[in-house]
C-alpha cells in the first residue's frame, strides 16, 4: 500500500466525518454526530489512482477535468456500493433520496464529487512536489 493511498483514505474519512457531522446540524442534532465506516478507507484510498489519470488530462480545462473525476467517483461509488450491498455491508443507502440510482449513487451529489475530484487532484499534485531546499 503506497503513502498516497493511505493519505487519500485518511483525507476521505476526514471529509466524510465533516460532511456527516455538518449534515447532523440540519437534522437538529446539536451533538453534530458523524458517521463513517472502515469500508470507506479503501474506497477513498482509491482516489490515489486519479494521479496517473491527471497526467493524461492535466492540459484539459477545469470543467472537463472535474466532469471526468465526477464520472470516476460515480463509477467507484456504484461498483463498490453494489459489491458491498450484495453482501449486506454497504455503509450508505440512498434509496430514499429523490435522485438515486439503485440506492448507491445520488446524481444530486455530482457537484460535490466534481469539487472533491479537483481537491484530490490538488492534494495528489502537492504530495509529489519535493520540498524546496
TrEMBL record:
It is found in: Membrane. Signal peptide: none annotated. It comes from the Bacteria. The keyword Membrane applies. The chain crosses the membrane at residues 62-84, 104-124. InterPro entries: CmpB_TMEM229. It is a multi-pass membrane protein. Its main location: membrane. Keywords: Membrane, Transmembrane, Transmembrane helix. GO terms for cellular component: membrane. This is Putative ABC-transporter type IV. It comes from [Clostridium] fimetarium.
